[in-house]
Amino acid sequence: MSTSDPTTLPSRRPLVEGPAAKGAVIAGIGLMLLGIFSYSLNDVMGKWLVATYTVPQVMLIRGFAALLLLMPFLWREGLSGIRGVQRPGLQILRGIAVIFDVACFYWAVGYLPLASVMTYYLAGPIYVTALSALLLGEKVGWRRWLAVAFGFGGVVIALDPTAGTFGFPDFVAFCGSMGFAFLMITTRQLRGTSETLLVSAQVIAPLLVGAVLAPIGWVTPSAIDFGLLGLLGIVSMIASLCVNRALKLAPASVVVPYQYTFIIWAIVFGYVFFNDTPTPHMLVGAAIIIGAGLFIFLREQALAREPVNPDRV
Fold it and tell me: How far apart are CA 140 and CA 273, in angstroms?
């Protein structure tokens, strides 16, 4: 699952007009689709691997492989950039949110269908809107509050508590999605920090926890599994690069809605690899969550293009 926060980026027009701009938009859409597909493939591998290996072990090897890819960028950043990091206290809180998000996600997919876990996480932007108003004092108008209410309703429908199937793994997935929302909020507050340092924190924080806890219940991986565990980090990094590049090539209002193809891949991969069939409640809930999330996103984009008017937020 992506831990970037594209929904907070303002809509913008391409820097050039004509065929070149159109080509950039098409490339942006393609890169976003490729990034989401890569994240989804990463989730499939994670679900398969946590059936054999502990979550800390997955976090350790995955993080180590990603860190190797990041080293040249960190070297270019230099010690001065690391020493001058902004708001270290908030950086630590963000690292804790990353650990919570990653641990809950991998633990949940070990017990639940991919589509179910992804449904909870797709509600992240809805939680961000609510938490931004409650924790940061941001102004949220009645339209977006109504969308938040509908989004929470979609989560309840997806959970389907009347069926008596809501269990501890569902609770973990829900908590993980809240951690993901808190991660997005802290990322929003740290926009002045370089992208390299933000990504590095997302890699190093789970890696450190994995290094401490992985010896408990350690299972020595085969050569193939070790490669797959490392591939988790590599694929995740590639996915992040694709998504970030897509947001630079095309307006956020064009490419961000394509992130909801997560649920399509989760359903397809879940059925093909794990024989998981989504329930009608989950599909209806996912549709409501996506609709609410898209409304909130498009509303924020529209407000970003208008003069500030407190009565219209």
Answer: 41
